[in-house]
UniProtKB/TrEMBL annotation:
It catalyses: Exonucleolytic cleavage of poly(A) to 5'-AMP. It is found in: Cytoplasm; Nucleus. This is CCR4-Not complex 3'-5'-exoribonuclease subunit Ccr4. Residues 411-728 form the Endonuclease/exonuclease/phosphatase domain. GO terms for molecular function: metal ion binding; poly(A)-specific ribonuclease activity; RNA binding. InterPro entries: CCR4/nocturin_mRNA_transcr, Endo/exonu/phosph_ase_sf, Endo/exonuclease/phosphatase, Leu-rich_rpt, Leu-rich_rpt_4, Leu-rich_rpt_typical-subtyp, LRR_dom_sf. Residues 1-128, 165-184, 222-244, 741-769 are annotated as: Disordered.
Amino acid sequence: MSFERENEAVGSYSALHGHSLQPMYNSSSGTPLNLQRPTTRNGSPAPPSVSSPTVGQQQQQQQQGNSGYPSFAMYPNNSFARFPVSMNVGQQQQQQKLSQQQQQQATPNSTTTSISTTQQNTSLGSTAATTTTVTATTAATTTTEMAQLAGNSTHVARQLTYAQISRQSASPHHHARTAAAMARNAPVASTVTITDPNNPSKSFNGLMSGVSNNSNMMSNKSMHSKEEEINGRTNNNNNNKLPNHSIQQQQTWTTLDMGGMGLKNLSLTLCNTYTFLTTLYLNYNNLTYLPSSINKLVHLKTLDVSGNKLTSIPPELGLLIQLRELLLFDNNITDLPSELGSLYQLETLGLEGNPIQPDIKNILLKDGSPAVILSLRENAPVGMPPPQREWITIESIGTEDDHDTISVFCFNILCQKYATSQAYGYTPSWALSWDYRRELILSEIQSRNADIICLQEMAYNQYEEYFRDDFRERAGYDSVFYPKSRAKTMQDKERGEVDGCATFFRSSKFELIEVSLLEYNQKALQRADFKKCPDIYNRVMTKDNIAVLTMLENKETLARVLVANSHIHWDPSFADVKLVQVGMLMDEIDKFANKHLNPPTSSPHGIVYSTTSKLPTIIAGDFNSAPDSGVYEFLSKGAVKKDHIDFGDYLYGDYTTDGLTHKLPLKSSYAQIGELPFTNYIADFQGVLDYVWYSTNTLDVLSLLGPIDKEYLSKVVGFPNAHFPSDHIPIMAEFKLRNPRPEKKLEEPNFGNASRRQPVKENNDHSNR
């Protein structure tokens, strides 16, 4: 795409507030500074480019209180924003009169076109109404073409404006010098921070703020802005990002200006060391390529590589999902890689001055930068699938013991109601459709051929209309399903979209003895110690998560196994609620197990278990808790203290008076080899949230489903995508059941007739008694 640099211009472009290049272009008169009447130059830190205003001019303009030029304010990261200065009424009338005179002089057949528009600009709470007049001479543009451009003036003018700003910053370290000049003129409230000696994080003069606690900075669809309190999730995918806060807090600068230096190559140190950068200027150098390692600058929001000799863009640039501005002006780029479609937060894509393909150019002029990114994302090729996940063998057994094995498959399949483009902006819409995802889900489940399947976020209507019957007919699974508690208060249509937990089991191997539904909010009301705690009503009662408990009996060995399938609340700011829910889960598992220590009436010769700890138990689900959480500590160690950090200052009866305890010797199935790198993988969070827990005294782990290929992940922004239907990945473990053996009577040793004591013969004749 190529425009005439200064011969074409169209008004009605949107304000560029907050952009670090903005002060070099915008003014209250709306005319580019390089086209305004020159003013007396003061001292400049560096020789400016011919077409760009000098720093001295900017300083003089800032000192001219009534000149109409903007004033500036420095930020700690060396970025700067514009504070508009409103024109008075006289200035506005004079400006409007000048615009009218220019419009009257223009004719339809002339080559000079004047466009006058009024814009409403808002920046940091300040509002200024400015009138912008742009006069351009069209050398090679016909009247029809100009009319077409005028129809799309917003996007065209945005490209032209950004390109002009970029060209005015070709001098060495232009942005750094400009920021330094403004820093010298910026008022400073105080150079000394007065703090409370008893609380150093508290300031008196407002210049210091306490360090935020990021200990619970976890997200998932599951952990981050995935659910709403009532409807399940939010669509805000931008609130809980995964920047490295510890690194960013240590840095006093996040902007690096290497523009105008004639660079031909970039050092790998830049990409490997300065990963905290949010703004990087590499404009007007002699770069012929960008290294693929640039994808390590994961915090970049602005990248300017204009005015170089680039002919292509590395696909790895699509991994920089924090990018808001990608400026590629005045290069030799003809095409864009489809991987840039992952830049779902990109607001400005600068392509003017490049021989870009017509299809991309037309989309950009018609619908703007976001439309180009959308087109790249929707039309991206599927690509090669990752290698099959390997099985990790822990212990091998002979085929004669197969009847004692139990394989458990656990998967949060992502309810279709939550699979929106707002929540997963990096995923093509066709990959979010239920028809596409359902086939991938079914294929994944059928390929694993597990004995027991625990699914979370199963929609009510999908279970009834498809999964229940299809699994029974095709694979021989019986099942139980319960939706979340909110379904009870909904109409049929709304109820169908409510998700819940479904447990499938192979009917040829297991007999269903009993099933029990645990509704955490309802169970909390039944506890006497909870009824006096306001936090129960304010925090626990508003969450309608559930668990499904099933008692299964092996048809061949008559051994029973308790299977719990649960989905714990997602919000990281409710770590206390997670602990309470899991505490109630373990209490209910103990009560449920007590009911089934003796064999059911249907199999009177079944096994008798002396205690609940002797009953084989499997607990699977999405716990929305990391391995360093209180939930993980409680399940693995059997107890957490009453003052555990996850409880905070909230009160929950006996839980916060005596602490939490349970009787089962539980262990995560992956603990022997270390937890997987992640079970939840999205753009701004990767971590372990899903587990299959087992009672270690009754079950042994035989094998585990391994992680996803690292090479594949290095090219992926997040799930779901074309190969993975959910933002979670399934986990699976195979166990060997330790069947309790009946006690054998000890036989007396045989030492021969000479030494063996003769037993006393009991007299059974009661006639003489």
